[in-house]
Amino acid sequence: MKPITTLTALALATFLTGCATFQSGQEFDSSKVDQIETGETTQAQIEQWFGTPQGTGVHSVDGELLEQYTYLYSESQVKAESYIPFIGIFLGGSEGETKTLTIHFDDEDKVFEHHMSTSRHDSSVM
């Protein structure tokens, strides 16, 4: 292989891997959160809108045990600078966003309360 072709192939491979994206959880439609009505929206509607929750459990509120659904989605993208030899350790890293939706249901399987949070993260050293 000619040196210029090797260099071009290496540069292209570096560029493409610099766009690597990692996902965790199942993406959900955040705009539907505004449609959740306390005391009205049912557990079946929540499952229809958001799918199967990533986590379930029981949460105590004022001595009452409420069923809890948790939806979580995280996406991170590796920065292209991460692939620069030697200095990539300092300039690189990843950045992304995490969304968490927690819903509590009353004994009639209706929404008692819900919370949505979104956070940005950046693992850069510098």
From TrEMBL:
<dbReference type="InterPro" id="IPR037873">
    <property type="entry name" value="BamE-like"/>
</dbReference>
<dbReference type="Pfam" id="PF04355">
    <property type="entry name" value="BamE"/>
</dbReference>
<dbReference type="GO" id="GO:0019867">
    <property type="term" value="C:outer membrane"/>
</dbReference>
<keyword id="KW-0472">Membrane</keyword>
<keyword id="KW-0449">Lipoprotein</keyword>
<feature type="domain" description="Outer membrane protein assembly factor BamE">
    <location>
        <begin position="27"/>
        <end position="111"/>
    </location>
</feature>
<feature type="signal peptide">
    <location>
        <begin position="1"/>
        <end position="22"/>
    </location>
</feature>
<protein>
    <submittedName>
        <fullName>Outer membrane protein assembly factor BamE (Lipoprotein component of BamABCDE complex)</fullName>
    </submittedName>
</protein>
<dbReference type="InterPro" id="IPR007450">
    <property type="entry name" value="BamE_dom"/>
</dbReference>
<keyword id="KW-0732">Signal</keyword>
